Amino acid sequence: MNPTIAMITFRAMLGRRRALLLLALPLVLLVLAAVLRYTGNDDLDISADVLQKFGLATLLPLLALIAGTGVIGPEIDDGQIMYVLTKPIPRQVVVLTKLAVAIVLVTAFAVVPTLLAGLILTGTTAQMTPAFTVGVLVGGVTYSAVFVALAVASRNAVTIGLLYALVWESLLGNFAPGAKSASIQQWALSVTDALTSASPVKSSVDLPVAIPLLVAVALAGTFLAVHRLRSLAVASAD
Q: Which residues form a coiled coil (predicted)?
């Protein structure tokens, strides 16, 4: 990891308009949790529904998409990445640094708000709050790796990411069992399901399948990003 690249990336991410989205989305979750708690609509079923459908299925992929594509995509689009690539810094260090920044942002703006929302809603009842916190964390790491790879591989990374997160996982996942099983959301939910005794939390993917898939996709995304970044340098040099 390169501290200079990390610092520049953090400054760029938190200084853009995207930072407003990073703040707005978790704020909606926290306000919703507070309203439900205040009005007494915070039973286990409703709380699980909020944490799963809003926290895990909506907040997490959108924030990971903003962070994962934002840490490197704009630099590739405007050519600034070439300044970094001319330095004697291994390509894998550049990718791992960008990925680390994306994961930190997802942790700050998705994992922590999920933890706080869960504590507001149910406390530690049935260990549901820590379970969703861990699920969002592992899902966030995998989402971040995928979206960083997309940002390096395509100028349409945001569109492709939205199609995957909102169409494949959310829309098709409700009708096609195969789509649901090939879903980072369901793999993360499987981890959550294993850590809580709350009956409303159910995943369609077994934990022994979900964990290897989470690891494999995260590693594949990282490898693809490194490979494509090396190709980008060669192509630009030509």
A: none
